[in-house]
Amino acid sequence: MVLLRRLRICLFSLSVVFLLSSLSADITEIREYRGKKVTCIHSGLSSTAGKVCGTYGFARVFTGTVKSATEISDTDKRLQLVPDESFLGPATEVTATVNQACMPLKDPEIRAGDKWLFYLQTQQRPGQNAQERELVLPYDSRSASLSSDAAQEEISTLRHLARLTDSGVVTGRVFRLKKKEERIESVPVSNWPLTAKSVSKGIEYKALTDRNGHFEFELPPDSYTVTANTQQGSWAPDRDPSVGKAECANVDFLMHTDGGLSGTVTTAEGNPASNVQIAILRISPWHEYFTVQTDSRGHFEVRGQEPGRYIVGEGVYANTTAEWRLRVYYPGVSSREEAIAIDLGDGETRSDIDFRLLSSAK
């Protein structure tokens, strides 16, 4: 099983260049917390094998009550916690530190009397020896208020895992991205069927998402291909988790409307333009771009595209003046102003995006 961990760091300083250079896929979030700017930096690796879930990587996992919450710095609180139902570690009272400033914005401020699901890790601060490691509540963990649907789903999975001996769990969510006013929001997809297929035996298992887009498989140990591509008009990349006894893998599916763009690119002489990088630029309802390579026939194809307006071109991101002169946009023009934008409807496929490259003599 591929074991993936996410690292998050919360700093008050905006001088984080030395950290950013050593991390991959960094995302920096600047927040206002009690009148001060707080920079929260996190990075993480993603894989089609998913992320480890359950209790793996934690020292204590339990539901319980916050007996006290004492501020010890501008960002941190020291929590005295009384366990109720323990999934990992002894059910004894424990002290943990949390960086409240970088907790998910959807979570409430942690206060005395609150009831939460707690995932705690150990941390060794500079100058401490191994015996002095302290417990922390990571702000990127799956800890959550018991009043939230997320906590109840986590508890259900933890109880499920506790009962297992010869099988494991694959769990996750199915969701879409929707534009609401000026924001892009994640929207759960309910009652969506998924299939998990055993790699070694070819046996298929079925699951259905609940109202929060959450699903769960109980599976014998093996490698699997899990797909959400079970209904026409929507598409997401398949995932390939491995399952061990009493282990848990988490795989999420971002569903795309299954629109497609394809065409054929030829050279100025009319021959197939093979191995050419074609840029796909979405200009509405939000801006993004990616590239796709033509095959030996000069053909390119992308799928899983949301409805919107697109511009297609080659050499669009050239770095030299000579290369700029060779850039070409569909339907075969040299400037973006002359390009014909492609309006892609919901689930529509456009297979006529054909154009010719410019001559290198120009």
Secondary-structure blueprint:
Elements: E1 6-11, H1 17-20, E2 26-33, E3 36-44, E4 51-52, E5 60-71, E6 76-88, E7 94-99, E8 115-123, E9 134-137, E10 144-145, H2 149-163, E11 168-180, E12 183-188, E13 193-198, E14 204-208, E15 214-219, E16 222-227, E17 234-235, E18 242-243, E19 248-250, E20 253-254, E21 256-257, E22 259-266, E23 277-284, E24 288-293, E25 299-305, E26 308-314, H3 321-324, E27 328-329, E28 342-344, E29 349-350, E30 355-356
Parallel strand pairs: 7-9, 11-19, 11-20, 22-29, 22-30
Antiparallel strand pairs: 1-3, 2-3, 4-19, 5-6, 5-8, 6-7, 8-9, 8-10, 11-12, 11-15, 13-14, 13-16, 16-18, 17-21, 22-25, 23-24, 23-26, 26-27, 26-28
Output the keywords.
362 residues; mainly beta; 6-stranded mixed β-sheet; 3 helices; 30 strands; globular
